[in-house]
From TrEMBL:
One of the Pfam families matching this protein, by short name: SduA_C
Protein name as annotated: Shedu immune nuclease family protein
Domain Shedu protein SduA C-terminal: 231-394
The organism of origin for this protein: Autumnicola psychrophila
Amino acid sequence: MFEFEKVGNQIIFIYHYGENVPPNWMRDRLKQDDELTYKSTFNFKTHHLYGDDKVRFEQDDYDLLVELYGPDETYSFVFAELAGEYYKILEGVITKKISVFFHKSISLVPDYFYAENNLSIFAQIEQLVNEDIYIGGNHSVSIPKDEFDNLVNNFPNSYEKGLYAKSRISSILRNYFDSTSDEEFKFKRYLRKKPSKKGKNLIKKFQEYETTKFQFLLSKLESMLNDVNAYNEDTWQNEILQIILLLYPKYILSFKSVFVKADIGKRKFLDFMLVDSNGHIDIIEIKQPFEDSIMTKGVYRDNFIPKRELSGTVMQLEKYIFYLNRWGEKGEKLITQKLKDKLPLNLEIKIINPKGFIIMGRDNNLSAQQKSDFEVIKRKYNNVIDIITYDDLLQRLKSTIYQFQNSEAIVE
């Protein structure tokens, strides 16, 4: 066994001989090789010897030393030296290429250096990190002591390694033998119980910027809705489209009046075509808001039904999608060729079951039953991603702002 002891500005590694260990094995190894390795982790040379052990080592007659002082009970080596706020472990003792520093407030224990089956912890770290390691204290790149303790406590043991090996084997054998036990499930269940890597709150990092951005968009939309008649249709659509692109970041581009082949010799022009980062397209219809454009005030067989403007817009969108799907690969090539100067390099348009958005109307004056029936209508159309009223759009902006303002609660 061994222990660490702080003496002056040094930490001393003190090895205690056990009953069944030759009392001179360290001395013999150093005499023979000028170095020794203990527990596959600690590598000492003769110049690391400390105090009386260094003096005794230099004596050639070991039998005389035993006669004068008795057999060795301990053997001591200088392990680390104080450098500012940290003890620096001597070069080559536990690592080959990097240096390891422990803050002076930390008491060293054997478990910090090797795991089960004498697996050197810092030798493993050195394979992954190519810079000096600081543990504890306030150094700019130090590992907090609690995190280092967590790393040590969760270092892979033989049980975990065995589970992993079995899971790899069973994942193959289960394809051929029904009786194979599900070791992969056991391994995943074991991992779920272990502490996970602590992630960063990415939302919080951009919290202030994103909150300001969406607050501006909310203010912009509220202002537009308070003065709808001040905008012509083109200006209104362009303003709303910018809000949509910021609220749905999957879309990187939008194009206006893209034609679609309909029947022989006929074309249809999309109001707006949206393109995502992989080139897949969706389409969007943007209507200026009018109070009574989506649901009837009267009921038909106890149900509120969509007004002609809403049902007509849905029908129009469904036909556009039908034409696009029918156009297929030929349409992809034609649209890509037409827009090639505006598309990112090597991005090609893809027509794969495009979906549609409809933005129109207000629902702030609808009754609860009208809103309920409107929701049924919205969910009825498979090809439409969403039918969004301007009040929906307001609420989505408010929810997004809330998300960024309360990022810790949401993420953690």
